[in-house]
């Protein structure tokens, strides 16, 4: 079984992925942030590095999805291949930070990859307000995230909502995270687990 968690920067994807992996004894596939050779450069000079960064993420995520399907294991994935293609790359293009030529090239690559993979059995979307995202980003204190603007987060949030509205790759669970603390409040994590249980039992 393949479960994936989607959501904006700072929504709590990685934290929830790890907690659910521990609870269900699933294998966690985390986003390749630490080893990503483009992230620092991208946040310092978005226009120059946007295409490189997006292709790196696309490649990394495509490899993950293939491995998930081949492994036959129960896996929970932090962020999906769809978010890169439907949210991050089009947003960079719309902001004038990725050229038309690079964006067209990127879309062609994604369409080819998408034709070879299946969506997750269950997608969990973490919906968050901008103030909550900003608060979480400051709390974790990653240097390269210090320059992320509220405008950038707002644009991403709008794209996330539009994408989720038309999502049709499989089962979808939307979790509003603004008033949840699944790190320090066990009952908040428990309520999410109950919802997931209901969805999973519907899968079989």
CATH architecture group name: 3-Layer(aba) Sandwich
Helix and strand element order: EHEHHEHHEHHEH
Which fold name is given in CATH as the topology?
Answer: Rossmann fold
User: How many DSSP E strands?
Assistant: 5
Sheet of most strands: 5 strands, parallel
Our measurement of the CA-to-CA distance between the termini, rounded to an integer number of angstroms, reads: 11 Å
- Would you tell me the overall average pLDDT? 90
The total count of helices amounts to 8
* Structural classification: alpha/beta
Q: Order of strands across the widest beta sheet?
A: 2-3-1-4-5
**Rg to the nearest angstrom?**
17 Å
Poorly predicted regions are: none
Number of domains: 1
3D shape: globular
Instruction: State the fourth-level CATH superfamily.
Output: P-loop containing nucleotide triphosphate hydrolases
SSE map:
Layout (H helix, E strand, L loop, with lengths): L1 E6 L5 H12 L2 E3 L9 H6 L1 H26 L3 E4 L2 H14 L5 H15 L7 E6 L2 H11 L9 H16 L5 E6 L9 H16 L3
Parallel strand pairs: 1-3, 1-4, 2-3, 4-5
Helix pairs in contact: 3-4, 3-5, 4-5, 4-7
């Amino acid at each position: 079984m393949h479960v994936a968690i989607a959501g904006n920067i700072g929504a709590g994807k990685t934290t929830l992925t790890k907690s659910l992996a521990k609870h269900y004894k699933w294998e966690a596939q985390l986003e390749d942030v630490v080893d990503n050779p483009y992230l620092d450069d991208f946040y310092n000079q978005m226009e120059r590095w946007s295409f490189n960064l997006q292709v790196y993420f696309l490649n990394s995520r495509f490899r993950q999805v293939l491995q998930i399907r081949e492994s036959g294991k129960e896996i929970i994935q932090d962020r999906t291949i769809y978010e890169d293609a439907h949210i991050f790359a089009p947003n960079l293009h719309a902001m004038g930070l990725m050229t038309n030529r690079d964006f067209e090239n990127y879309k062609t690559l994604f369409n080819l990859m998408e034709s070879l993979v299946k969506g997750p059995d269950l997608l969990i979307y973490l919906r968050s307000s901008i103030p909550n995202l900003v608060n979480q980003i400051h709390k974790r204190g990653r240097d390269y995230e210090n320059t992320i603007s509220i405008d950038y987060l707002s644009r991403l949030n709008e794209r996330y909502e539009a994408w989720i509205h038309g999502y049709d790759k499989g089962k979808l669970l939307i979790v509003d995270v603004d008033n949840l603390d699944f790190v320090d409040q066990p009952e908040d994590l428990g309520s999410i687990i109950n919802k997931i249980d209901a969805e999973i039992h519907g899968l079989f």
